[in-house]
Design a protein that fits this description.
Layout lengths: L1 H7 L6 E7 L3 E10 L2 E11 L16 H14 L6 E6 L4 E9 L3 H12 L10 E7 L9 E2 L12 E12 H14 L2 E7 H9 L7 E6 L4 E7 L2 E8 L3 H12 L3 H11 L8 H29 L5 E5 L8 H8 L3 E4 L6 E2 L5 H6 L5 H14 L1
Parallel strand pairs: 1-4, 3-15, 4-9, 10-13, 13-14
Antiparallel strand pairs: 1-2, 2-3, 5-8, 6-8, 7-8, 10-11, 11-12
Helix pairs in contact: 2-4, 5-11, 6-7, 6-8, 8-9
Length: 373
Amino acid sequence: MSNFLQRIFKENNQSVIGVDIGSSSVKVVQLKKHRGKAVLETYGEIALAPYAGLDVGQVTNLPSEKIAEAIKDILKEANVTSLISGVSIPFKSSLVSLIELPKASDDELKEMIPLEARKYIPVPISEVTMDWWVIPDNHGDLDFVDSEDAEGEKTSPVQKVQVLVVSIHNEVLNTYSSIVKESGLDTGFFEIEMFSSTRALISGEIEPVMIFDMGAAATKIYMIERGVIKSSHIISKGSQEVTNSISKGMNVTFDRAEHMKRSLGTLPPADEQKIYEIISLTMDYIFSEANSVLLSYQKRFNKTISKVILTGGGVAMKGVAELAKANFQTTVEIGDPFSKVETPAFLEGVLQTAGLEFAVAVGIALRRLQELS
């Protein structure tokens, strides 16, 4: 597949790769720019479980040298020709908070934000690397709150700004730096996966949107307004929980349960209703949690979520889209991570399902490509 793609695109333009190190696999996407468009050159995925002596699909916690080995293997298998890259950091390894502060100059905010952020970071500030973004004014959508003077009398309303604060423990960054060094990548940045997914999946939507990203270990929820992440949440159950439930409920091995999940999903034949019931228990929990997050956001900000975008490997399971449409009281769409990338026509069908796992890798590659422009 990848050799064929490379024969199609022979230009010598600089190529880049996005590397998504997930809990159960590593995904890579190689892009280059041609005539102003991002063009897919190759992509690939490799399971991490075999490097830990486990069944494919199981979540792992590998040392950096094993992850580096997996990265080198997938670069070779996918015939990747570039090491210029960006690398994802899992959402669970970061802390993201939305804080409100009085509107002030940039210099004043630089002093105020670290002091306020300490309230949300459970470890000493010296142990984390922190960054922040002031969310742009959206046509006067800034909040106003009443204030009081020393005598308790009402004064003029104070204009507030919202700031997205992101922190990552230095130990996590050191681990990923080791992975990059051992795998030989020329990495320009690390990026928390939710920003990468948003870049790949969101295309100028003005109304609030929810991204529902179901991975192997967890399901991540991101609330997006005008391209900015306003809120995020993690549900500690993902597609591996479905496999585990099938394994226990049907008394079969994990490998067999994984096969049953992929082949039957939530749409099994009539004589396999037990599998449907087992899968539904886990999926009902995940959707219930996601719905609570959605409703809480709408109540907090007094805004309606215009649509839910589904992504992640767990969403590829048969019937998940139908379950989502039944659970969310809004429009539900299957995400298209490759919508901003030019791909060969013969891959369109494949990428509609397999492509769901590559939102993070695509988003990272798009950013790296932009940085080289």
